[in-house]
Amino acid sequence: MKLRLGILLLLFGLPALAAAEIQYVQVEKTRLLTKPSAFSSAAAKLAYRTRVEVLGRRGAYVRVKSAAGTGYVSASALSVKQPRFSSRLSKEYVSSDEVALATKGFNAQIESEYRRKNPALPYAILDRLEAKTTYSDPLQHFRAFRQTGKLGEFRTGGER
Amino acid sequence: MSRTSLGAFALAALLVLPGCATLGTAIKMGGAVSGYSELVDMGTSMEKASREFTEEEKYYIGRTVAATLLSEDPWRDQPALTEYVNAVGQTLVLASPRPEVFHGYHFAVLNVPGKINAYACPGGFLFITSGLLRLCRNEDELAAVLAHELAHIAAGHPMQAIQASHEREAVASLVKFGVRKAAESKSEIGRLSGLFDNVVKDVVRAVAHGYSRDKEKEADQMAVDILSQAGYPPQALASVLARMDNKSCYHGDPKVRAAQVEVAIQAQGLGEPVVSARNQRFSKATAGLESSRR
Predict the structure, then answer these.
(1) What global pTM score does this model have?
(2) ipTM
C-alpha cells in the first residue's frame, strides 16, 4: 500500500505540479520590480526561498507571480531548485546539530570550524568591511551619485 | 521490492519526469513516503549527479577567499574612499548580467601601493589595490577595472577554477552530509572543513594570479557592455590597460588586450561622454593617493 502511494505520488502528483513553472528566490532578498529594468521601482521585496510562478521572460528579467504580487525579478536572483534553509538566515534552529541537518552545505558552521583551524585569517576585518558596505537599498542609496555623474537612468539617452 | 522492480520503477519515472535532480528528489520523496530505503538511496545518488554549489555556498567560499586575500594585503579602511568605490561598483552592478548574488556585492581598496591588481571573489567581494587605483586617472578608468572584475563573477570564472576532483569530492560529501542523522553529521564537519580548504585554495590561486587569456578576453568584452550600459565610456578600459606593463598581475599582454577592447568598441559603435563632475569627485575621493599617482 505504502509503495503504491509512493509510486502514485511520483507518477501523477509531480507531473501535475510541473504544469506551472515554479522557481525560488536564491538570494537573501530581491526586489519585485514593476518594470523589467534595474532602475525600476519595487512593488515589494521577496525573501530567500520565496516560491514564485514564472509567467514569462523579458531579457534578463523574469515576470513572476508571488504571494506579494506580480512583477519582474532579475533572473540571477532565481533558481529552479528550492534552496535549502540558510544557516545565516534561519532563526528557528537552536542547536548546531539542527543547523547542520537543516542547512547541509558549506555554511556558517563550516566557516566556524575553518576559522578555528586558521585563527590568523582576518574574518573580523571582513565582517567589518561587509557591515560597512551592505546597503539595504543600493538603488536609492546611490541615486544622487548616478544623477551627478550622468550614469544609469540619468545617462545620455536615458534608461535602456 | 526486487532489484528488477526497482529498475522498472526508475525507468518508468525517467519517462515521466524530465530533469535528473527533480527526478532524484521525486524518487527520494516516494521512497520516504513508502518506507523503502532503496528508493531513498537511489534518489540520493541521482541528486548527487546533478548537485552543484548553491549561491549561499559560493558566498561562504567567497568570504574565506576574501579573508585569505586580506591576510596578505590589508584593507585601506578610509570610509569616504570605501563609500566612493562602492558607489562606482554598485552603479556597475545595476548594469551587470548578474546583478544579484546571495548577500550583495562589496567593494574595497587594499592598501598595497606597490601592487597593481584587482580581485573578484565568488559571492561578490571585489578588491582593487591602491597601486592600481593610483594608476587610474579618473572615475571612468576605475569603473573599467571594476567592470572587468564584475565580469569575471558574472561569467562564473572564480568557481570554474576549482579542480574537478576537488569539486566532485566536495559535492559528494555534501550530498552524503545532507542525509546524515544529526549525531553522524557532527563528525562529518571536520572532514567537510578539509574539503572546504581544498576548494578555497583552488579559487585563491586563480583569483590572485589571474585566469587564462581566453577568460581575460571574455571578461574584457563583457566589461565593455557593462560600462556602456552603466553610462561610462568603455574606451576607459583600453586606456587603463594601455598604461599597464607585463609585470602587472593581469593575465595576457595588457597592450594586446587594449587593442582587442578598441576593436570591440569600434565594432559596436559605443561611445559615452566624459563628465567633469565624475573627474572632480574621483580626485576628491582619492586625494590621499595623489602624491604618487603616475
Answers:
(1) 0.80
(2) 0.80
